[in-house]
Write a structure and sequence with these properties.
- The chain is of the alpha/beta class and about 650 residues long.
- It folds into 4 domains: about 5-70, Dna Ligase, domain 1 (2-Layer Sandwich); about 75-245, ATP-grasp fold, B domain (D-amino Acid Aminotransferase, Chain A, domain 1, 2-Layer Sandwich), CATH 3.30.470; about 255-485, Mur-like, catalytic domain (UDP-N-acetylmuramoyl-L-alanine:D-glutamate ligase, 3-Layer(aba) Sandwich); about 500-650, Mur ligase, C-terminal domain (Protein-Tyrosine Phosphatase, Chain A).
- About 35% of the residues lie in helices and about 25% in strands.
- It is built from 21 helices and 30 strands.
- The strands form 6 sheets. An 11-stranded mixed β-sheet has the order 17-16-15-18-14-19-20-21-22-23-24, sandwiched between helices. It has a 6-stranded mixed β-sheet with strand order 25-26-30-27-28-29, sandwiched between helices. A 5-stranded antiparallel β-sheet has the order 11-6-5-12-13.
- The radius of gyration is 35 Å and the shape is elongated.
């Protein structure tokens, strides 16, 4: 849909001459990757002229274009942000005779013009009387010492670029609508937000198809002097037009979703980011596993704090940021942003209490509410968590509140929808998106790999939160469904988050669960997988309160048929202190039992847990520092399975 002159790219004089003969018309010869009109020769009609033009172009590029010469005037149209910003008629460098002065003297006189300077230092560029200019003079029958008659125009360049001495006249208001649309389309086809469209035609005021005009070049870095300072006509503020075209009313920020909560942060963050990537956005992510830009890890480690977030927010190739925002980072340095578009608070349950001045669950909720209060567009909250619900009053004026719930009849959710609010909920094994009283089934949970056929209810809840956040960010239902249905939580994409493996008939789940709520949810999921016995290998960091460790033991003792407790991080306790408290909690539930096992070293605990299993059983290994810990322990007795699992995580 864009008219261009016929031609070809060549790499030798002979090729250039063959193309010119095939076209059977005068040709233009120019470097493929040139700029500022350097190396361009037009209207080459003989093999000798083509050869000279080729050698001239070779000074500026290795690959040369030979194309049909389009006769007419030279115009430049500036496109910015899908709109026409300016258009200029460009005249090649020339002098006008006075009947007395030679061409050399006329060039010297013109170069004394205060508007002319070297290169781009002034409004116009000095005219060079070089070999190319002398060739142009020969074509017109002149020598440099010739004296043109009064009023005779002598051209010194075949191209009209200002950088080679040309001048410009504004013609923006003359462009017909068809030419405007054509120029915008040309820029769009190449994928440019800002482009200089070079057109040759007899009269820019007429449609190109009526006069055989053509687009001869699209420039990715167009100059704006000709529009800002035309020799004739209205000056156009091309710089402002470019900025407005690129930024519009934008404040320069990229969309930002911040995710916090006690459990599920990493998975929810990755779900949202995956959907954004599937929708075609350049996506930056921070999680406990690292900093990722467009799916590639830039930094490895726990990157849920200030500096990691700044890395993503300052990356030029990120269009959409999703930041896992943890308690520790908030307390240490605060948020890395003054506001996010969407803030997500998944849940608040006891974890890290007694640390950093956070002694109660209400204190912890105050920390996580910082994310909710930073959201300028929307806040996504768990309708089943009273502490999350209470954060509504912390929302900024004008920020929308969206609730999500695993219970379709949750009273908070129902009241919110009755009042015209939006949200997401789980009903009849499906995710439903609601806008007031209008509900639409988004997808069946079985179609989401991360839910393991709907057994991983905590990942259904994470998906509800992700869907609500994406909806609040302006994604369509189709885009949300496309993202959630293709998100996979495995050892490669989401390490230590419900990674499922097979070890000789035993289903092994490796997970980062480290608090009572996480252990309860994980055990429920594991129990639903198979009818065999459920074996747990569990731990928790030693800096948790005694009561928290005992509660973990009670949860695990009640839910696992066999329980192995090991030491992960003592963090100030005597070695084995945390293990003993967890076992104390388990005994509170089941009493002294030979199903409770104390094994301090993690590798021995893993091998002990596996030895307690038979084919058809499910083994949960929780709170590991990495998948490699499990693989290395397995390799001692079963190198084949270890190698297979390791291959799945690379």
């Amino acid at each position: 849909g864009v008219p261009v002159p016929e031609g070809a790219t060549v790499t030798s004089v002979e090729e250039a001459q063959r193309v010119a003969r095939r076209l059977r018309v005068p040709v233009t010869v120019k470097p493929l990757d040139g700029n500022q009109g350097k190396g361009v020769t037009t209207n080459c009609a003989t093999p000798e002229e083509v050869a000279r033009a080729y050698e001239f172009a070779r000074n500026y590029g290795r690959r040369i274009i030979v194309e049909r010469f389009v006769e007419g005037r030279d115009y430049r149209v500036l496109v910015a942000g899908g709109r026409i910003a300016a258009a200029s008629f460009r005249r090649p460098a020339h002098v006008v005779g006075d009947g007395v002065s030679t061409i050399v003297e006329l060039v010297e006189i013109e170069n004394r013009n205060p508007a002319r300077g070297n290169g781009h230092s002034n409004v116009l560029t000095r005219i060079a009387l070089d070999a190319h200019a002398e060739d142009m003079l020969r074509r017109q029958g002149y020598a440099p010492d010739a004296v043109p008659g009064p009023g005779v125009c002598v051209e010194l360049r075949s191209n009209a670029n200002l950088s080679t001495g040309g001048t410009a006249e504004d013609v923006t208001d003359l462009l017909p609508e068809s030419t405007r649309q054509l120029c915008v389309r040309a820029a769009s086809k190449i994928g440019l937000d800002v482009a200089g469209i070079d057109i040759v035609c007899r009269d820019i005021a007429l449609p190109l198809d009526e006069q055989g005009g053509a687009v001869i070049e699209v420039n990715a870095a167009p100059g704006i002097r000709m529009h800002q300072h035309p020799s004739k006509g209205e000056a156009r503020d091309a710089g402002v037009a470019i900025i407005d075209g690129l930024m519009g009313d934008s404040n320069g920020r990229i969309p930002l979703v911040a995710v916090t909560g006690t459990n599920g942060k990493t998975t929810t963050t990755l779900m949202i980011a995956h959907a954004a990537r599937v929708a075609g956005l350049g996506t930056g992510v921070t999680t406990t596993e690292g900093v990722f830009v467009n799916g590639k890890r830039l930094v490895k480690g726990d990157c849920t704090g200030y500096w990691s977030a700044r890395t993503v927010l300052s990356a030029p190739d990120v269009d959409f940021a999703v930041l896992e925002t943890a308690r520790g980072g908030i307390l240490k340095r605060g948020l890395a942003f003054d506001q996010c578009d969407v803030g997500v608070v998944l849940n608040v349950s006891p974890d890290h209490l007694g640390l950093d001045g956070v002694d109660t669950i209400e204190d912890l909720a105050q920390v996580k509410a910082v994310v909710a209060s930073s959201a300028s567009r929307a806040v996504v909250l768990n309708a089943e968590d009273a502490l999350c619900v209470s954060m509504v009053r912390r929302a900024r004026p004008g920020a929308e509140v969206l609730f999500f719930s695993m219970e379709a009849e949750n009273p908070v959710l129902l009241k919110h929808l009755e009042d015209g609010g939006r949200g997401a909920y789980f009903q009849d094994n499906a995710i439903v998106l609601a806008d007031g009283m209008r509900q639409q089934e988004l997808m069946r949970v079985e179609s989401m790999p991360s839910t393991y056929g709907g057994r991983a209810r905590y990942n259904i809840a994470n998906a509800l939160a992700a869907a609500a956040a994406l909806m609040a960010s302006g994604f369509s239902h189709m885009q949300i469904a496309a993202g959630l249905s293709t998100f996979v939580s495995d050892g490669k994409t989401n390490p230590l988050r419900t990674n499922v493996f097979d070890v000789r008939g035993v289903t092994v789940i490796v997970d980062y669960a480290h608090n009572a709520a996480a252990y309860a949810a994980l055990a429920e999921m594991a129990r639903a997988l198979l009818p065999g016995q459920l074996v747990g290998i569990v731990t928790a960091p030693g800096d948790r309160r005694d009561s928290d460790l005992v509660q973990i033991g009670e949860i695990c003792g009640e839910r696992f048929d066999e329980l192995v407790v090991y030491e992960s991080q003592s963090r100030g306790r005597p070695v084995g202190g945390a293990v003993d408290l967890i076992l104390e909690g388990a005994e509170n539930v089941v009493g002294p039992s030979d199903t409770l096992h104390r094994e301090i070293e993690v590798d021995k605990a893993i091998r002990l847990g596996l030895s307690l299993c038979s084919p058809g059983d499910v083994l949960v290994f929780a709170c590991g520092s990495s998948l490699q810990v499990f693989i290395d322990a397995l390799r001692v007795d079963d190198p084949e399975s270890a190698d297979r699992i390791e291959a799945q995580t690379v």
